[in-house]
Amino acid sequence: MDSLAETWVYLSASPLFHLTLTLVAFQAASWLFERGGRSPFLNPVLGAVLIVVAVLVLTGTDYGTYFQGAQFVHFLLGPATVALAVPLYRQWHRVRRSALAITVSLLCGSLTAILTAVAVTRLMGGSGALLASVAPKSVTAPVAMAIAEELGGLPSLTAVLVIVTGIFGAMFGPMLLNLLGIRDWQARGLAMGTASHGIGTARALQVNETAGAFSGLAMGLNAVATALLLPLLWALFVRFGLV
Question: Among 9, 36, 22, 111, which residue's Cα sits nearest to residue 71?
Fold first, then answer.
């Protein structure tokens, strides 16, 4: 038992252990996702998060220690995002033909995401800091956290809300689009990328390459649109005493 305890102390202090934990958790969640017939309720990201959190809680490991290993996966987010240009390039002829529709859709989607989040939080009595934290929830995490901090929100809370939004969109987005009778892959991809950023884009890529390409495009452009629109809207909210 002493030998086992010593081994655990050594492993828990090693960055490679937490890197391995992250990869194994995602692989296990992906296996379950496939075995479950690709059910949206078995989303691999959600499954991996639950497994990692359970291990960290049971072992009493703080986030800082875990991130020493997970930072290697975090680094790969950049190359993975850039790699979204590949399916986008393959669908570029469709993007050019739909430029006007894409622009209008993105502006409407960005405004809807901001206004509904602020309205619901405001009706529930949320403070100004909470409103600022919720408003950019549909944007990819680094951009959303920067916007929230600029508006006086809590970046850490925004990061959690972004992840929850992405997982929720990946789980229920396709079902909602089916219920609404939206079958066009371009429209479905734009909706997923605008509403649920990277996690929604990953889900769209699993289903259809065209949807994945348009989702990646929407994810990037929505980040730009929100970064430009939200500070202007926030100034209006402050002027009329809404925050």
Answer: 22
